[in-house]
């Protein structure tokens, strides 16, 4: 924490946005701010200080993203949502769940009943 100073001729992304998080409070002097177009150029002219450097153009020109996504042109280009998506059942242990066992082996209920009758007959 504290204050960092930086020469406008040696600007560094690590100083302006440490950790890649944009949003650092920057105070510019008037002379430094007037020197920026000479160093970085503009959208139409190239930089005088940096060889072959062009200022990157913004990729999104409209900041109202919700309006763009809801527009007829975008909706026309996108496919419809798949409504009948197949849902998968969570795997359950048939030995622990009677419902899962009956689903796998419908005769399991009958077999279990017969086993109880046999056990009761042996007991008597």
Tell me about this structure.
There is one protein chain. With 124 residues, the chain is mostly helical. The chain is 40% helix and 0% strand. It contains six helices and no strands. The chain is elongated, with a radius of gyration of 35 Å. 0% of the residues are buried. The model has no long low-confidence stretch (mean pLDDT 85).
Write a brief caption for the model.
Helices cover 40% and strands 0% of the residues.
Query: Mean pLDDT score, rounded?
Result: 85
By DSSP (H or I, 4+ residues per run), the number of helices equals: 6
Q: Biggest sheet, in brief?
A: none
Approximate shape = elongated
Instruction: Report low-confidence residues grouped into runs of 5 or more.
Output: none
Radius of gyration: 35 Å
User: What is the helical fraction, as a range of percent?
Assistant: 25-40%
The total beta strand count reads 0
Following the backbone from N to C, one meets helices and strands in this order, namely HHHHHH
Percent of residues in β-strands: under 5%
Head-to-tail CA distance between termini: 85 Å
| Content-based structural category | mainly alpha
Can you give keywords for this protein?
124 residues; 6 helices; 0% strand; elongated; mainly alpha
Structural topology:
Blueprint: H1 13-16, H2 30-40, H3 65-69, H4 72-77, H5 98-104, H6 108-123
């Amino acid at each position: 924490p504290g204050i960092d100073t930086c020469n406008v001729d040696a600007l560094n992304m690590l100083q302006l946005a440490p950790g890649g998080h944009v949003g650092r409070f920057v105070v510019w002097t008037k002379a430094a701010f007037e020197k920026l177009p000479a160093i970085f150029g503009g959208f139409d002219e190239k930089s005088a200080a940096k060889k072959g450097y062009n200022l990157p153009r913004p990729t999104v020109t409209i900041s109202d993203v919700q309006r763009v996504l809801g527009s007829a042109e975008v909706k026309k280009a996108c496919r419809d949502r798949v409504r009948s998506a197949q849902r998968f059942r969570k795997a359950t242990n048939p030995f622990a769940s009677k419902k899962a066992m009956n689903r796998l082996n419908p005769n399991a209920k009958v077999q279990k009943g017969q086993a109880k009758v046999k056990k009761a007959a042996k007991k008597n």
